[in-house]
Amino acid sequence: MSAGGLRRVRVAIDGPAGAGKSTVARALADRLGYLLLDTGALYRTVALAALRGQIRWDDAERLAALSEDLVARGRITIEHIERTQNSGSGMRVRLDGEDVSSAIRTPDVSLGASRVSAVPAVRAALLDMQRRAGEAGGVVLEGRDIGTVVFPDAEVKFFLTASPEVRARRRYEELAARGNAPSYEETLADVERRDKADTERPVAPLKQADDAIVVDSSDRIVAELVEEMALVVERCTAG
Ligand code: DC
Fold first, then answer.
1. Max CA-CA distance within the chain?
2. Which residue CA neighbors atom 4 of ligand 1 most closely?
3. What is the tens place of the pLDDT at every residue in 27-42?
């Protein structure tokens, strides 16, 4: 029990890329006064360390050894920071003490993160870390397999999704704003390819937990969506 008499629980938000998970998870954590754990940032940090160590994406053995070393020696650390208007995710990640929160957002690291996340030993190494970070509750965990693998017993599970067209449109607008957009049609084809790869891969495929609440963000205003989700969590913690 916390001081307010409410249980502070674990809230899982899983779903495909482009469904708006980061935005929604961050806003929900703020709304509830919970910490945010962006688990994709951990995979990204492993990818960054691999890039710096010149380890190839197909070298599963060295990626396994690297991720085990990173976790065993506490070389990846997470800090929860006070969020101001533009301070990003509310979470800072350090690699060997260096703040890598921005360095893990490059296209190279994105590609690498998707490759390292397909290596079972990398997933296993990061599993304990995620569990330790979330076990006390009062946390929103954002990822792909939180409700299915990391915390199958999470008190509240959301599966956030949006139509491929809406996700492609968001991605297209993001790329266009940076001045290097392929066509919308190409972006859509890319989203559909990635969905297929993510849901059909043998290791940790993206799938929704049986007891997850499916939330479709396609035509929704974020603030409304978050309010609805917060009410679900509050109903659960008051009970
Ligand atoms: O959500 P993101 O783009 O930061 O995730 C980076 C990569 O890590 C992405 O390819 C999916 C993968 N990932 C994963 O496999 N499992 C998670 N719990 C989180 C991310």
1. 52
2. 40
3. 999 999 999 999 999 9
Nearest CA to ligand 1 atom 8: 40
Domains of the chain plus CATH, in order, are: 10-238 (3.40.50.300)
Encode pLDDT of 61-108 as tens digits: 999 999 999 999 999 999 988 766 555 567 899 999 999 999 999 889
The C-alpha R_g of the chain, in whole angstroms, comes to: 18
Q: What's the mean pLDDT when you consider all of the chain?
A: 91
Indicate if ligand 1 lies below 6 Å from the C-beta of 117: yes
Q: Any residues with CB less than 8 A from the CB of 77 and at least 6 apart, and which?
A: 93, 94, 97
Å from CA of 114 to ligand 1 middle = 6
pTM listed for this prediction: 0.92
Q: Check if 45 has its Cβ closer than 6 Å to any atom of ligand 1.
A: no
Instruction: Evaluate if residue 112 carries a pLDDT over 90.
Output: yes
| Ligand 1 pocket, mutate which of 43, 100, 159 (most atoms under 8 A from CB) | 43
